[in-house]
Amino acid sequence: MTSDPAAVAKVDLEAVRDNVAVLRRAAGGAEVMAVVKADGYGHGAVEVARAALAAGARWLGTASIDEALRLRRAGIRAPVLCWLNTPGARWSAAIAARIDVSAGDVWAVEEIASASGRAGLPARVHLKADTGLGRGGAPPSQWPRLVDAALKAQADGLLEVVGLWSHLGSADTPRHARTLRQVDAFREAVDLAERAGVRPQVRHLANSAAVLALPEARFDLVRPGIAVYGLWPDVPLTRTGLRPAMTLAARLAQVKPVPARQGVSYGHTYTTTRDTRLGLVPLGYADGVPRHAGNVATVLAAGRRRPIAGRVCMDQFMLDLGDDEAAAGDEVVLFGPGDRGEPTAMDWARALGTITNELVTGVGARVARVYL
After folding, report:
1. Does 99 share its domain with 152?
2. Taking a C-beta distance cutoff of 8 angstroms, is the pair 252, 328 a contact?
3. Do 351 and 219 share a structural domain?
4. Which long-range contacts does 91-96 make (Cβ < 8 Å, 24+ apart)?
5. Is 212 helix (H, G, I), strand (E, B) or coil?
6. Do residues 221 and 258 both lie within one domain?
7. How far apart (Å, rounded) are the C-alpha atoms in residues 136 and 117?
8. Which among 260, 280, 290, 258 has a CA at the least distance from the CA of 272?
């Protein structure tokens, strides 16, 4: 006999499929890579990957080789690109599993080529250019050297350059001058590589916001991440047709009467103003509820939205329920699509000064995932 979990993240896979369909239409002729890094942004990488592929995504994207290998172990055979690896990474395992890898520096090309020789298979490589984000990838001064190193290894039969790519830094404001400069810089990087002899299968730059609002960034392949999950940055994209896939909920562990002027939780940052009842919710910062959500973020409980009362603890937080009907076992919804009047992840992000990505990826392993 099993009991219902105290806390659950309900993941609507139909919403994932519908979101991918929206993104495919927005992408025009470009193929769609569904990014499932960080365990599918906290939603479950394998389950989301299958739903996205069923909806017409052709590629999957992960950060690490281990994340990509997990997809292969689950029987997923679609093209997978992983892009964040350090010296000594498990290149041979990736090559043997036909996982595409990224190289943004000459050392990576050299390690990949060496691993290819040991694996007895040519690696599939995407060369990454830093077009202005100032993060991973070769800057313009080093791009020609990276391209030359990759072409030499390709001539030796050790790898195939199948992709050229970069990442946008300000796609949330798609018409921003920085974004447009990055698009131009990517075109220049692609032109240099192709003049040197690279014949890529795919060129890719667009992230979620760019898929929806920046047609000139779409090229051959787009890489939506957060939009696959029905979320997006805090930009004017409210008519996207996307639907949030995750609902984070818990069941009240206790409801008890307390008097006026009762301090609540650590530090007593909240004090009751009248005789009332407190509800204990078994979710805390160890489960991904930010500690600074206390007295700021709201949840749906006992029929209406109400703020968290006092500080969020490691495993729990409190609610002031007043005279509203509530009992142990009743559901409390932290965020969801908003259909029942519950807050959305965007509501939480705005209240806490963060982004939806941080909230959903932070939902911890103690929270059961249930797939609808």
Report:
1. yes
2. yes
3. no
4. 91/65, 91/115, 91/116, 91/123, 92/118, 92/119, 93/65, 93/69, 94/65, 94/68, 94/69, 94/123, 95/119, 95/121, 95/122, 95/123, 95/124, 96/121
5. helix
6. no
7. 26
8. 260
Contact status, residue 132 vs residue 217, Cβ threshold 8 Å: no
Residues 145 and 42 in one domain: yes
pTM value is 0.95
Is residue 239 a part of any domain in this protein?
A: no
The residues pairing with 344 across neighbouring beta strands, listed in sequence order, are none
Rg (CA), the chain: 24
pLDDT at 232: 78
Q: What backbone torsions phi and psi does residue 55 show, to the nearest 5 degrees? A: -90, 0
Q: Which domain holds residue 120?
A: 13-229
Residue 2 has pLDDT above 70, yes or no: no
Look at residues 229, 263, 285 and tell me which one is the last residue of a structural domain: 229
Say how far apart CA 246 and CA 371 lie, in whole Å: 9
Question: Are 85 and 123 in a shared domain?
Answer: yes
User: CA end-to-end span of the chain, whole Å?
Assistant: 22
Query: How far is 107 from 113, CA to CA, in rounded Å?
Result: 10
Give the model confidence (pLDDT) of 263-290 as tens digits. 999 999 999 999 999 999 999 999 999 9
* CA nearest neighbour of 36 among 172, 221, 246, 229: 229
Q: Which three-class secondary structure state does DSSP give residue 306?
A: strand
Query: What is the CATH classification number for the domain harbouring 60?
Result: 3.20.20.10
Are 194 and 225 contained in the same domain?
A: yes
Query: Closest by alpha carbon to 103, among 169, 153, 178?
Result: 153
Q: Write down the pLDDT at residue 234.
A: 53
* Active-site amino acid positions: 37, 266
SS3 sequence of 66-77: HHHHHHHHCCCC
Higher pLDDT, 4 or 304: 304
CA distance 79 to 89: 19
- pLDDT tens column, 198-241: 999 999 999 999 999 899 999 999 999 999 999 976 554 456 78
Question: Closest by alpha carbon to 278, among 311, 309, 312?
Answer: 309
Rounded CA gap, 260 and 278, in Å? 11
Residue with tokens 């991904």: 288
